[in-house]
Specification:
About 20% of the residues lie in helices and about 30% in strands. By secondary structure, the chain is of the alpha+beta class. The protein has a seven-stranded antiparallel sheet with strand order 3-2-4-1-12-11-13, with no helix packed on it. Strands 5-6-7-8-14-15 form a six-stranded antiparallel sheet, with helices on one face. Helix 4 (about 130-150) packs antiparallel against helix 5. The radius of gyration is 17 Å and the shape is globular. It starts with a strand and ends in an 11-residue tail after the last strand.
Length: about 280
């Protein structure tokens, strides 16, 4: 299965890609050799880099480890292909525009029945590739589009977005493992499900969370490539596999978390499927 990484912080910071640790698993310490990508948000827009080659062998990854731009929202993905060829069109994270903002999504898991469940009623959001991940993203944006359109140029509340994202996650979770990180540049939404663990069994946790502040004593995040600024920085990291020796929190199966400026804004436990129909 693929692996995910995301970061939310109060002030822009560099992540070294956490990159060095994550990239080693992209074809060197792990089997995730079918592509990689990283997205650095800057307000409403995003700087997105992707390659369909192994992250562990990429000169571009090594360059970004040292020269990646500071950001307060970063999403990254290393791919082990389950649906779709190892090609750029199938490489995550995926990006689309909605409400005058860049929206970015990356998924870990496999949902073979998604094409029978998700229907795209307009060409507004159309997959470029063949992955279940991109189809899920486009379907999510189709539902979010109704919320953003009603907002008429403003940003919908975190609570309204979280409710919709959690309901959508509950609908797709029965189709197969559905871990994802998604951001609209304002808030980072994280859904943890289950994943194939090191012993080969598929079970929770699908994602782990680490929340830290520069005001806390003896916090060393250098091995993850994160540099804390000499200010009252708040920082939250999300990863499929913990990137440091610190005690990362396993996120509950089906739980959805909204992170804003490095803080946990809200947590919603697993929602019951069936509250809304898929569009």
């Amino acid at each position: 299965m693929c692996e995910l990484f995301a970061m939310s912080s109060r002030y822009p910071t560099t992540v070294g890609f956490s990159l060095e640790t994550l990239a080693r698993r992209g074809g060197h310490d792990g089997p995730h050799k079918d592509g990689w990508g990283v997205a650095y948000f800057e307000d409403r827009d995003v700087f997105l880099l992707r390659e369909s080659s192994p992250a562990a062998e990429s000169d571009l990854v090594r360059f970004m480890e040292e020269n990646g731009p500071p950001s307060n929202l970063v999403l990254s993905h290393i791919r082990l292909a389950t649906q779709g060829d190892p090609a750029l069109r199938n490489t995550q994270p995926f990006q689309r525009e909605l409400g005058g903002r860049a929206h970015v999504f990356a998924h870990n898991g496999n949902m073979p029945g998604i094409k029978r469940q998700c229907r795209l009623d307009s060409p507004r959001f159309t997959p470029v590739g063949e992955t279940d991940s991109e189809l899920a993203f486009c379907t999510l944006l189709q539902r979010l589009g109704l919320l953003w359109d009603r907002a008429k140029g403003t940003t919908p509340t975190v609570e309204s977005r979280l409710e919709l994202v959690a309901d959508f996650a509950a609908w797709l979770r029965p189709l197969g493992p559905f871990n994802f990180v998604y951001s609209d540049g304002d808030t980072l939404f994280v859904h943890s499900d289950r994943r194939k663990q090191d012993d080969g069994e598929e079970r929770p946790p699908g994602l782990h969370l680490l929340v830290r502040s520069s005001n806390q004593q003896a916090v060393d995040l250098t091995q993850s490539g994160v540099m804390l600024a000499p200010v009252a920085q708040e920082l939250a990291l999300v990863a499929s596999v913990p990137l440091t020796d610190e005690p990362w929190e396993p996120i509950g199966e089906g739980e959805v978390i909204a992170l804003t400026k490095g803080l946990v804004w809200a947590r919603q436990p697993a929602a019951a499927a069936g509250t809304q129909a898929l569009v």
